[in-house]
Amino acid sequence: MPQSSPGRGFIVLYALAYAGLYASFIPFVSVLLPLKVTAVADPEHRVALLSAAALGGAAVASVANLVFGALSDRTYRRLGTRRPWILAGLGLLILAYGLFHWSGDGASMLAAVALLQIAINMMFAPVGAIMADEVPDAQKGLVAGLMGAAHPFPRSSRSA
Asked: Are 125 and 72 in contact (CB under 8 A)?
């Protein structure tokens, strides 16, 4: 059975959701994490802490993306939607940003970074899979282009 074409509203909201995910992630990595490291670590340990946060965060993100991709696949097969994972990830992201803000030492900051990566990938995995679920082949190029356009927007807002 051929897929019906999603409306413009769906495509716009989907592109905005994807851009929102990048807007929640890129400023964290490029601005907030270095600022927090500067606030919680003495000068001689800052590079090591930032490296640990970046490497540990990347490792957690890699595993979380695979786990939540598989879990959202199961949810999609059972319920026909991936929204529960996206909503749970959003709630967890709000909590994780709060914990990151209030972390006062390296260990609590690293735990908050791990939680942030879990939350972000709890949303990224299902949002990325929606393309295959709901966008017909004839519109995948347009939607992929809109998703790709989302990548530079958060970074372009930084001043030189």
From this structure: yes
